[in-house]
Amino acid sequence: MEKERKPKNIFVQGPISPEKIAQSIANHSSKTDIGGHSIFLGQVRADAKAEGNVIAIDYTAYEEMALEKAFEIREAIFAKYPLTCMHIYHSLGEVKVGELCLFVFTSSKHRKAAMDACDELVERIKAELPVWGKEILDTQGHVWKLNT
Amino acid sequence: MSNTLHIKAFGMVAEKIGLSDLSMDHSGDSAELLAALLVKFPELKTLKFTLAINKKIVNGNQEVPENAEIALLPPFSGG
Questions:
Q1: What is the pLDDT of residues A46-69, one digit of tens each?
Q2: For A129, which of B8, B11, B76 is closest by C-beta distance?
Q3: Which of A136, A140, A147, B34 could, after both became Cys, cross-link A56 (CB 3.0–4.6 A)?
């Protein structure tokens, strides 16, 4: 199976649906050289802040730069690990607590490459993509999310 | 030489300066541009942000190409 090597959109408006994830897994059943998948799902947490409780995160991005950067990260991860497939989806706009905002999916012949690549991808996405989360509070205010 | 830069602001920076898109005439390198931005928007002095020129993060001082797209990027918080 040829690897996809063109920049592609990673952004999804609103939450990522569990059905989309199920469908994405199902789409790989024809790729019979795959022996292991690794999946990371980011979910919006109901953090209690001094200013109020988080009820949703409103995501914005510098989209053109984020897509260039995502492509660069994607190429680096493909070069580093023997992967069959890699998929990245990130929400834009409002995602309520309990809903999914990030879906990272790697597949390879053997589990170790898929798991290590998935882990590194998630770390790089959080550190390097120009995306911002505005945490909406139940007090009608907001605070800007900080990644740890 | 007149040189119009297209400036985009994001996240907390956009909120604090009250703008997400503006144009600015400027000649000079990125350090001079940063100084000019701090004069125009004193609010920026209290914020943590990095500059990007044509979608690349600025490291150290560098040239600003003509009519470049400049972005003011607060710390990333995706995921």
A1: 999 999 999 999 999 999 999 999
A2: B76
A3: A136
Residue-range definition of the domain harbouring residue A20: 11-144
Task: Identify from A65, A88, A136 which residue to disrupt to test chain B contact, counting B C-beta atoms within 10 A and taking the largest count.
Answer: A65
Burial bucket for residue B7 (CB in 10 Å: 0-12, 13-18, 19+): buried
For the stretch A121-140, pLDDT in tens is 999 999 999 999 999 999 99
Give the domain CATH number at A69.
Answer: 3.90.1170.40
CB contact under 8 A, A146 and B11: no
CB contact under 8 A, A147 and B76: yes
pTM: 0.93
Inter-chain Cβ pairs, chain A and chain B, closer than 8 A: 63
In this prediction the ipTM stands at 0.94
The token duo for B6 is: 């297209």
- What distance in Å separates residue B1's CA from the closest CA in chain A? 28
Q: Where are the alpha helices (DSSP H) in chain A?
A: 18-26, 63-80, 111-128
Chain A nearest-CA residue for B53:
A65
Task: Give the pLDDT confidence of B6-28 residue by residue, as tens digits.
Answer: 999 999 999 999 999 999 998 89
CA distance A36 to A97: 30
What is the chain A residue with the closest CA to B48? A146
pLDDT of amino acid B17: 96
Residues A10 and A86: beta-carbon distance below 8 Å? no
